[in-house]
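Why does residue order matter? Because the sequence determines the fold. Keep that principle in mind as you read this record.
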Amino acid sequence: MNVTDMFDFPTTMMPEVSTAAPDIRTWLTDLIVQRAAIQGSFLQGFLASLSVVVVSELGDKTFFIAAIMAMKHPRIIVFAGAISALVFMTILSAAFGWIATVIPRVYTYYASAVLFAIFGIKMLRDGWKMDPNEGQEELEEVQSELKRREDQEEKEETLDMLEQGQVENRRRKRNAVLKVLLQAASLTFLAEWGDRSQLATVVLATREHAVGVVVGGSLGHALCTGLAVIGGRMVAAKISVRTVTIIGGLVFLFFAVSAFFIGPGE
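Structure:
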């Protein structure tokens, strides 16, 4: 045996390079492709999300928050704060729904249909029992709550200005825009959390194209919020929240019933 033979190891004796990381990437890629293939088309998810958000948000608490704040603050700032919170909430809700797609689609599909039926029946029931002046009452409720918050903030600002003088006063004026932006975003986020449109977005993302749901929902929120900041009080006086609620219930029931005719598509 010569020297070269002594160092000529069989290839089977060489240590194998770990393939764990590529395997994980492959598994995630396959999962994404599989889920995208199973879910509906982008347009279908877009239209479903757009319609559900519009009928859920017109005359809703977030609508009135944007409308009232836009009466006292720059509209573009109020819109930017509110829509940033709503888009973030839409993405978050769709992500929750998409994660649920690891469950077999046949289960999530029919579960979503049942939930839509429950939402629809509840909205019809609420609309039937709703006072015709319900929208005006909610507008006044939100207005009084915002006024209470603003009065408290003004008192605190006055005390701070007396204590710290003109320099602090100028600094507060420079930060006024950021304050309005954050107030609109935080109030909208808190009002939207657990709301019907958020739950509907989660449910839609389990059965429709997730990106379509996000884009459609974001556009729906943008339309409603834009309408609120441009002429929210006038719109609130013209539209009937009772009628919008009943129409919304019918839309939810339509999606519930259509699900049983279309099927999960597997």
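The chain has one domain: 42-259.
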